[in-house]
Specification:
Keywords: Amino-acid transport, Cell membrane, Membrane, Transmembrane, Transmembrane helix, Transport
CATH topology: MetI-like fold
Function: Part of the binding-protein-dependent transport system for glutamine; probably responsible for the translocation of the substrate across the membrane.
Structural class: mainly alpha
Family: Belongs to the binding-protein-dependent transport system permease family. HisMQ subfamily.
Main location: membrane
Radius of gyration: 23 Å
Shape: flat
Helix content: over 70%
Number of domains: 1
Strand content: under 5%
GO molecular function, one term: transmembrane transporter activity
């Protein structure tokens, strides 16, 4: 009997073939139908906002998550406790609830604190008073996704960094490398191979969770679909197109990430 690994490698991706056939059939249906073509053209206007929200929020969440992970692995007990507190609290709050809290509680609190701290500058005429409406709903949504996903991403970074053998780190210390040099030259290049798959999964998940920003009226794919369906009463056509667009984005990203993982694996084996 052939090993499971060799069987998996030689197995034809029938699921991908079936998905490609369905995607092609949907594309032909959109091209052949004036109604579906109109819905698709309308919904597609939100793709740019969806991509912008996802990319910016994920980049910020990755940077914040890496910082939290380094705090969790630091030699300071206080930093470790702060990192653990942050991760456990944020992971315990649903993304939708966090979105509402940041938008309608966190943003006003931030504006009030900013105005209190900058009162002397405002009185001197250097800056004006910041109003709650000056903080756009788009950026409130991005910050909510950033904070929510940073807790999960920090655990991905922490696990990846801890997967590097301690012997290599000790050898780097013996060579006189600084802490930053050890992380940049020894730890991170090896940890990234462990980090990349779950990090890619989080990115795909954020593409889907970005649809939650529609509850704030941000004009992403879902929000534009909701508005169009409410005005035209074409709920079936509209939400079918919305699902189709999200599937194209997420499946395409998943395939690209798998190809990148295979490439990195081959480079490591060579």
């Amino acid at each position: 009997m052939a090993p499971a690994s060799s069987t998996a490698k030689s197995e034809f991706p029938w699921w991908l073939a079936a998905a490609a056939v369905l995607a092609l059939a949907a594309a032909l249906a959109i091209a052949a139908s004036d109604i579906y073509a109109e819905v698709f053209a309308t919904v597609a206007k939100g793709i740019g906002i969806t991509i912008f929200v996802t990319v910016v929020a994920f980049a910020l969440a990755s940077a914040l998550g890496l910082g939290i992970a380094l705090m969790a692995l630091s030699g300071s007990q206080w930093l470790r406790q702060v990192a653990r507190f942050y991760v456990e609290i944020i992971r315990g709050v649903p993304i939708l609830v966090l979105l509402f809290w940041i938008a309608f509680a966190g943003a006003p609190a931030f504006v009030a604190a900013w105005n209190a701290l900058t009162t002397p500058l405002q009185n001197a005429g250097f800056i004006g008073e910041l109003l709650v409406r000056d903080v756009s709903l788009l950026w409130r949504a991005i910050m909510a996704l950033t904070i929510g996903y940073s807790a999960f991403i920090s655990e991905v970074f922490r696990a990846g960094i801890q997967s590097v053998e301690k012997g290599q780190i000790e050898a780097a210390k013996a060579l006189g490398l600084t802490r930053v040099q050890r992380f940049r030259l020894i730890v991170f290049p090896q940890a990234i191979r462990t980090i990349l798959p779950p990090l890619g999964n989080d990115f795909v998940a954020m593409v889907k969770d970005s649809s939650l920003v529609s509850v704030l009226g941000v004009a992403d794919i879902t929000q534009i679909g909701k508005v169009y369906a409410a005005g035209s009463f074409r709920f079936f056509e509209t939400y079918s197109i919305v699902a189709y667009v999200y599937l194209i984005l997420t499946v395409g990203l998943s395939l690209a990430l798998r190809a990148l993982e295979r490439r990195l694996r081959r480079q490591h084996e060579e």
